Amino acid sequence: MKNERADQNKTILLYETDGLMTEFDAVVIESGKDEKKGSYVVLDRTAFFPGGGGQQADTGRIQLRDESIHTVGDVYIEGGNVRHSVDTDIPAGEKVRGILDSKIRFLRMQIHGAEHLVSGLIHSTFGYDNAGFHMSDDSAVFDVNGPLSDEDIREIEQRANMIVFENRPVTVSFPTPEEATSIEYRSKLDTYENIRLIEIEGIDVCACCAPHVDSTGRLGVIKITDHEPHRGGMRLTLTAGMSAYDDYAALHDRNARIMEMLSSKRELTDEYVKALYDRMMSLKEENGALKKTLTDTLTESVIDRIGKRESGDVSPEIVFTDCLDPVGLRNLVNECTGAFPGTVCAFLSTEGGFRYIFAVRPENAGTADILSLTADFNKACAGKGGGSAVMTQGTTTADRRDIEAFFLSLKA
């Protein structure tokens, strides 16, 4: 099928028929300045992809005949023309050589091609369409408009990798509108005009504007690294090729560190971690029981002390502790206010000071006025906090001696 789309551009789009081309010769046919992007050139032919179809624009260099190098920082389409952002002006008529950042281009093609393959398999197997696509340099995130089980996803992943190993051809075609109407292909656009199709032999045909590899073998291993329900369908994340290798190498290194810490065999780290997790949960349960016993014991001690007060003494009851957690401190305060008509002021030792809770029974809130007490305390003891007429909470950097001195001053 003839690429009639090429006749509509000033520039021959080399990337449309050869995604593996990373160097090419060209002539500058237009140069200028963009208000936002700066200097640009339009070439008579280019392998630089201007971005689209979920894949980012290429970057690289343009080399002149005098061997001076100009950085291509962006490639974009403006007025139907492919513009190459360059760091300095290049005059029209100049013969140049374009050199792409080939490593980045290839990584992107591997991931993009893997997404085509996986989406195509999902479509042919379950009838779901691709409902969204975003690609970075090391992964692709895409949505399909139907649910998939863990088993479904594993099966699709395995089939995709088998197709990689079969090294099936990946071809490009440019059907006319008449030809396109007789071809079954995936597309987000309801049109038969200016179609470029990417076909994975026997597996998938999809409309796409981005450069692709020429065979599935070049995709390398494909791994679906994450999946979750999304708007009635599924959102999947995959990586492929060298990015999949980098991901595997990073996981291998992390697993090796776990092996060293746990003295575990490579294939048994999950069992060792599970045993460690079970032990941690058991200790957490034991710790919770011990904390409750400790809270109950301290609470009983405070209530006993309250019971020995002189009749009518409702001055604040001050409690200091360094062996409870914030939950235990609050439980202690709640129990003590139930046994005491006055204000309970509890302090938990922390690094650099204390966490405090001041509380009173609701029926005594009007006379206790702990909001005023808290404000006076914060001012005198470098405290921060507040709350309601029944309970206030905060922190202080004062030491115990200064805190005790503040409450003694209330009795003076």
Helices and strands in order, then pairings?
Elements: E1 12-13, E2 23-34, E3 38-43, E4 45-46, E5 60-64, E6 69-78, E7 81-86, E8 95-100, H1 102-126, E9 130-135, E10 140-144, H2 150-166, E11 170-173, H3 177-180, E12 197-200, E13 204-207, E14 222-230, E15 233-240, H4 241-262, H5 269-307, E16 317-321, H6 326-339, E17 344-350, E18 353-359, H7 365-368, H8 370-380, E19 383-387, E20 391-396, H9 400-411
Parallel strand pairs: 1-4, 16-17
Antiparallel strand pairs: 2-3, 2-8, 3-7, 5-6, 5-8, 6-7, 9-10, 10-15, 11-12, 12-13, 14-15, 17-18, 18-20, 19-20
Helix pairs in contact: 1-2, 5-6
Describe the structure.
The chain has 9 helices and 20 strands. The strands form 5 sheets. It has a 6-stranded antiparallel β-barrel. A 5-stranded mixed β-sheet has the order 16-17-18-20-19, sandwiched between helices. The protein has 3 domains: 4-100, Elongation Factor Tu (Ef-tu), domain 3, CATH 2.40.30; 106-259, Threonyl-trna Synthetase, Chain A, domain 2 (Threonyl-tRNA Synthetase, Chain A, domain 2); 293-306 and 314-411, Diaminopimelate Epimerase, Chain A, domain 1 (Roll), CATH 3.10.310.40. The protein has helices at 102-126, 150-166, 177-180, 241-262, 269-307, 326-339, 365-368, 370-380, 400-411; strands at 12-13, 23-34, 38-43, 45-46, 60-64, 69-78, 81-86, 95-100, 130-135, 140-144, 170-173, 197-200, 204-207, 222-230, 233-240, 317-321, 344-350, 353-359, 383-387, 391-396. The chain has 412 residues and is an alpha+beta fold. The longest helix has 39 residues, at 269-307.
